[in-house]
Amino acid sequence: MSSDPLTDRDPDQTVVVLPRHLAGAGPADLRTTWPFPFDKDWSLHQPEDGNVIAASPCLRLRTSRFEYGARPGEYGEWIATGHRDPFGPPTWQITFSPNTPLEFLRDVHTELLDLYLEDPRIGRKWLLGEDCTAPHEVYAPLLVRGWSHRVKTDGTQLFRSPSALATVKHQYATTDTQAPAWTARGGPSHTPTWSAEFSHRTPTRLVASFTASLISTEPVLRTVKDIPANTRRHVYEAPSATASQSARSSSPVAPAQCRVAPTTDRAAPAVRRGR
């Protein structure tokens, strides 16, 4: 596309668009981003500094939304951590930039809660980075959807979307455990609109839930003004019949299952079947 397809729309008009990774952050509502059972045993802390912190009952899982203080109501990074010792440093960390699409945040946090509920024992091996999920569970869906793959001699491999407007980098053989094991970015390479980093020992299932959400063909709801200016000409409107479906997907649910689609970012929306 060579022009903005939304140029004649009212900035406050709601549209249903794809691909997800170019649609902007969307309304970052904690009620939809964090599916944790706060009415039961999970805790929610809102200190006066503006940060918001959620924690599991054992305090070994924490996820935060930070306010940098530039202007009231404007937030910074989203960070999720797993701790071997609830009062010690994190064993692993996931960091999302402020403009990360809310669907990615919601789906990763939903998977995090699923992992927690699947294994209620105190000594959760996955929490300590002992995850038996193979790395190809993260990137195989990308290859199926036509992403390119390049292996470098420095122990990294790079996956790039057909439009070249999203990348996933994997450090598969490196001694630098301080650098992220997985890094994803969306938008033009010189001015990405969002980024996500997964440290070494981050459970592979969480990274896989992220890439599944990244390539999902379930459209997202956005106002025209929320879609970044540098990606608007690359998004397209999904059929109007999917609008109600996208509205329902904003509630805390399990990540949508992706189905194989043509090898292009402009894929037909997947249809979620009723249970």
Task: Describe, in plain words, how this protein is organized in 3D.
- With 275 residues, the chain is an alpha+beta fold.
- The protein has helices at residues 30-33, 102-118, 136-144, 204-214, 243-248, and strands at 14-18, 43-45, 52-55, 61-65, 78-82, 92-96, 148-151, 156-160, 166-171, 182-186, 194-198, 220-223, 236-237.
- The strands form two sheets. Strands 2-3-4-5-6-11-10-9-8-7 form a ten-stranded antiparallel β-sheet, with helices on one face. Strands 12-1-13 form a three-stranded antiparallel β-sheet.
- A hairpin with a 5-residue loop joins strand 8 (156-160) and strand 9 (166-171).
- It is globular.
Read across the widest sheet, the strand sequence of neighbours is 2-3-4-5-6-11-10-9-8-7
Share in helix: 10-25%
Q: Low-confidence segments, ≥5 residues, pLDDT <50?
A: 247-264, 267-275
Q: Helix count, per DSSP?
A: 5
Summarize the structure.
Helix content is 17%, strand content 21%. It is of the alpha+beta class. The C terminus is likely disordered.
